[in-house]
């Protein structure tokens, strides 16, 4: 559809979801039976541009309409919201959705990455690890808490891991923001859609799968219901089984830690301070120590 057509459809459609996480705003507009337009905007904006050729299905680059990234999808729920919905058992649907989406990301890693941009989440993490944030801000408090727990050596270690992912010897094309929130679950038998930015990112191949595994690891750790915790562990094990062949297990373990640290930083930056962030700092310290112990070879890429 043209920009004018999309604009008209958005005006006529029924808004069914609206969500503001601080770092990005999402609204979902129903345009027909099992047909939706997902509209995303963020403080970082959206870079105009085109990926190098068609993206692997079901990955989709957006149209840019009035500053929003607009995608066509076949459902109104992300995989993140579906997994957090306690009204029904979503594990089987989640497993099928991940099995459909992960191969597209692996195929993306075969695209040229000469002109790709650094993934924004990892770059934001590196920035606050190496540069003190605005004094008095929640992010500054998080950095101070982290520095007290991890020490200078720990801060330098995590920033070094960031650079390993962002500046590898063999960069590939990556999604850069591979998360459950960017996976739209298809209603009924409709296909899932993976929302991507309009330009390709470049990094180590381990970043994408590590970012997803980090999110699943975090969900498993914070989940108190043992049945649901086991379900999330099963999803994570499935991704490890069919999505990580040929990748460095050491670098994947580092990416898992960095994804959780990035989430803590984004929460502080866009939502504010919460006492649970101190617990996250200790969790990240333990996971980082385990990554080093379990993978002494380092796992550079």
Task: Tell me what the structure shows.
This protein has helices at 3-12, 79-84, 91-108, 120-130, 138-166, 206-222, 226-243, 249-270, 276-294, and strands spanning 14-20, 24-32, 35-42, 59-60, 63-65, 68-73, 77-78, 172-174, 183-185, 193-195, 201-203. The protein has 301 residues and is an alpha+beta fold. It has a single domain (77-294), classed as Aminoglycoside phosphotransferase (APH), C-terminal lobe (Aminoglycoside 3'-phosphotransferase, Chain: A, domain 2), CATH 3.90.1200.10. The strands form 3 sheets. Strands 1-2-3-6-5 form a 5-stranded antiparallel sheet, covered by helices on one side. A hairpin with a 2-residue loop joins strand 2 and strand 3 (35-42). Helix 4 crosses helix 5 and helix 5 runs parallel beside helix 9 (276-294). The longest helix is centred in the middle third of the chain and has 29 residues, at 138-166. 39% of the residues are buried.
Task: Offer a concise description of the structure.
This is Aminoglycoside phosphotransferase domain-containing protein. This protein is α+β, with helices and mostly antiparallel strands and 301 residues long. It has helices at 3-12, 79-84, 91-108, 120-130, 138-166, 206-222, 226-243, 249-270, 276-294, and strands at 14-20, 24-32, 35-42, 59-60, 63-65, 68-73, 77-78, 172-174, 183-185, 193-195, 201-203.
């Amino acid at each position: 559809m043209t920009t004018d057509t999309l604009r008209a459809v958005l005006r006529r459609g029924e808004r069914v979801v609206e969500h503001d996480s601080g770092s990005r705003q999402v609204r979902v507009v129903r345009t027909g039976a099992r047909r939706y337009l997902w509209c995303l905007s963020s403080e970082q904006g959206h870079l105009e541009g085109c990926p190098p050729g068609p993206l692997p299905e079901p990955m989709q680059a957006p149209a840019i309409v009035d500053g929003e990234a607009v995608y066509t999808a076949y459902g109104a729920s992300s995989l993140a919201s579906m997994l957090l919905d306690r009204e029904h058992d979503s594990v089987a649907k989640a497993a099928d959705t991940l099995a459909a989406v992960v191969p597209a990301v692996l195929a993306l890693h075969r695209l040229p990455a000469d002109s790709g941009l650094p993934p924004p989440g990892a770059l934001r993490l590196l920035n606050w690890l190496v540069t003190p944030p605005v004094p008095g801000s929640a992010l500054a408090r998080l950095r101070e808490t982290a520095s007290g727990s991890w020490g200078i050596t720990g801060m330098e270690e995590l920033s070094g891991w960031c650079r390993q992912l962002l500046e590898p010897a063999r960069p590939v094309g990556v999604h850069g923001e591979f998360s459950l929130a960017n996976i739209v679950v298809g209603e009924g038998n409709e296909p899932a859609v993976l929302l991507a930015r309009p330009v390709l990112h470049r990094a180590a191949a381990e970043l994408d799968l590590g970012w997803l595994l980090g999110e699943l690891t975090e969900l498993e750790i914070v989940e108190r219901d043992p049945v649901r915790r086991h379900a999330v562990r099963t999803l994570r094990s499935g991704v490890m089984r069919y999505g990580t062949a040929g990748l460095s297990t050491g670098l994947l373990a580092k990416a898992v830690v960095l994804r959780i640290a990035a989430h803590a930083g984004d929460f502080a930056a866009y939502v504010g301070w919460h006492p649970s962030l101190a617990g996250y700092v200790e969790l990240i310290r333990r996971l980082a120590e385990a990554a080093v112990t379990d993978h002494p070879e380092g796992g550079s890429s």
